[in-house]
Structure formats: C-alpha cells, structure tokens
Design a protein that fits this description.
- The chain is of the alpha/beta class.
- It is globular and about 75 Å long.
Amino acid sequence: VDREGIEPSTSTLRTWHYTPKPSALKIIIFNRCIFIWSTNIASKLRQVIMTYDSVIVGSHVITSVGMVEKNIVIDDGKIVKLTSSDLPSCDKKINCQGLVSIPGVIDTHVHYGVYSPIDRAATTESHAAAIGGVTTMMRMLRLGSSFESSLVKQLDASAKSHHIDYTIHASVFNEQQINGMKFCTDKGISSFKIYMNLGGEIGHVYMDMNPGENKLIESEVNMNNQVVEKIVQQAASLNCPVLVHAEDYQECGCAIKTAKQKNKNGLHAWSQSRSPDFEVKSIKTVCEYARKYDCIIYFVHIGSALALEQINLERTAGTKIFVETCPHYLTLSHENQNGYLAKVMPPIRSNSDVASVWAALGKNQIDTIGTDHVANQLKLKLGGDNVWDALAGFPGIGTLLPILLSEGVNKERINLNQLVKLTSTNASKIFGLKSKGNLDTGFDADITVIDLKKETKVSTSLFGGFSDYLVYDGWNLKGWPVKTIVRGNIVAEDFEVIGKPGFGKFVSTSR
C-alpha cells in the first residue's frame, strides 16, 4: 500500500487512513495483525454488530405527526430512532403488543413537601406518580424565607428521593423573594407563581416544611396589587412565565364572612363564597400588568365558564396566555359531591361548568392538564364539622391519566393526539423542558405505555402515596398506564414501582 502522507496514531495501536478511489480504507496494525476496513460497508456492518439498550416493539406510537406503527429504539436514556420492520440488536426487548406508547406524562402542578418534609414527600409522591404514568412532576415550591437562604437546601434534600424526574415553579410572596427571582433562574428554575387568593383575613397558608423536620410552617401572605405588578415586571425582565392563582382575596374574604354569618355549609356554599366573578376580577387585573410588561401568563386550575370567557377576551386584547385545568374540574361538581373531601381552591363548580371545560378542551382553549395534587391526610383534611374548617386541596397525581383515558379518550371527548398535547407536549414547550414531551429522535426516552381496555377500581392503596384518601376512591376507570419509563428505564409496571428512589433527576427549565 502506498503509505505516502499517512500518519500513525499511536505506537501501540497503529492506524493509517488511506483514500484510494472509489472507496475509503482504514488500515490498522495491531498485535502484528493487519486489518483493512472499508467505510462504504461500515454502516451496514454497524447495523449488524451495534447493540442498543432496549427496543419497545409492537405498540401504537403517538408522535407529533399522529399514530404510527413503529419500534422505539432506546440508547443511553434517549430515543435514537423509530423503525418499522427491522429490529436492531438490543439488550432488552420490551413487548408492548396491542398497547399504546405516549410521551411520558408531565404533571404541571404538584404540591408536596408541605405536610411531610421534602426528603420523604419526594419518595411517596413520585411513587404515586410513577404508578399513574407520570414521568416528570412540577413542584409548586412555597418558601417563607428568601430563596438565597432556603432554595439550595430544598434542592439538596430532594435530589436523592425521587423515582421520576422533577422540576420546580417558585412561588413569590413578598419583595424579598422578588429580588431573589434571578437567583432562582440561575439554579434552573424559570417559572414563578402568584397567589392572588391570599391576603387580608384569608391570607393564611402552609409553607413547605424545612428538610428533615416534620413540623408544619404557618404563614400569613398579603398579595396586594402592588406586589403582583412587581412580580410580573420582574418575571418579564427575566423572560419567565408567571403562573397565576386567579381569585380576588378581598371579594372572597367578604363573601366567606357573610356565608358563615348565615350559617351556610357544604361545597355549594364554598363555591358561592368564591364566585367565578372573583376569578374574573383577578384575571382582568393581572392581564393588564401582563400587557404592560409583555409578560406570559399561565392561569392554573381554571374550572369555570366565566373564567374561560374572560381569558378568551384577554387573549383577544393581546395578552399572552396559557391555560391549565385539572381532572376534578372535568369530573366533579358541588351538585354531585357529598362531604368535604372535594374542597379545593378555586372550588369545583356546577355541572354546567364541567361541560364548559370539556367544550373548551375541544376548542383548544386549554393548553395543559395538571392535578393541583396536595399530599395531605384525612386528619388534616377534615379539621372540623363544616366546610369552612376543612383543608383545601386533595391528592390526585396517580389518577390524572386514568381519569383522562376513562372519561376523555374512551368516551370520545378527546382523542389520543389531544391527550398527548394536554399532558406532555404543550407543557414541555411552555416551560422549556426541551428534552421532554415528544417520542422522536433525540428526546429523553420518557414513555408511558397505556392499555385502553384495562379496567381497575381506584383505591388509596393502589398508589402508595402519603395521603390516606382519594376523591375518586371506588371509581371504576377504563384505561390505565401499564409501564412508566423514565429515560429508558422502567420505573413502574402493572401498578408496581420497580425503580429506586434517587433515579429521578432535577430538570432545569429555560425559555
């Protein structure tokens, strides 16, 4: 061989490159043996000898272009390709014949670490999430002190406890925390929440517990319009969306006081005392600030027809808005619920409002579905003998997907493509989860495999979370996740978590 212009690479393993026409050769001398390699056959040989980590075979795959019949090839936690007929060599073949593979569910709205410390809550709530097909959970962080003094402690305490991936929305309550918003973005947190429902006589809130301490932290918040405007202004300067709990606390406080004086009780009285009109008032206020500073607003847990109508008007006026609803606004009303388990803020509304939320989904007026999951227990939930003393909020992360499959897809209110957008794709785009939300080459292999025909009755013991009750207890749902895969690893299968706490990673968000 003509060696002119050929350079050896090392003294122990000698490699020369020679480029004759028409094919390229690589000549390797190793242990006195000569190997001649032709690169024009390299790709074909690689297909024979390359072994991938795993391949999901036989499922109907929901991609950005719709349903396809493909094998999902996974390597090093990523989707490397989708194939039709050829089955590449792999360490593990995952047979999903007759099932449906969707992008891993992203729960955009989760409260945990409030009623048990985050180092424990991360394990129990991510366990429930994994059973329910959720692969990424977005925590509503609530700190009573500055971000600079408390945020890192929370991040460190949760780093070794999650079964699935997770990220954070940072709640902002005061001027000190407004000044710390840049500190949050430097730590990979780029979305902030405003509680317009907190102030005056109804400003009480439980903050997140200190890591390692099982002690409730009570606080009083006064979210006046001046603070709201400053948060919106700072978020806009950081190019971050603002999540808004839209209820006017002054109107709510006055109506609650009146209802108590008249000895009203029950979920209907709770709904009346926090009227949709009070949502509308807050929506108008924050949207005015959003247009002034060119800020993106993400309205959380929207469940009334009036709120949806006002949001549509604000969009027409030029406000940049995303909307989230929750499964309970699609399934529960104060007309069909007894007791106080379904007490939540904003309240569950009428049957007519439930129909309006489904209609808004069909018109693509709602972008995401989160749970507003609260990891509490009955001894705290039912604090008295009336609705006013009961704790607001309830668990729901495990039932998010089964409810949407049973009440949505299987009842033909939404299709699988809509489901994927509402539970994964849109959230990944809105919050900058760039490696999530899509079953395509280069994305994280976060995959939820579902059986649309599987029927199971909901029970608290099914999910293994911190809470000892569920508002959907006893419901027979059709359509369940049977495999939850995070970055190529099966973390839950057939209602059993098989992964270990600590596998889940914090995911930085960006805009």
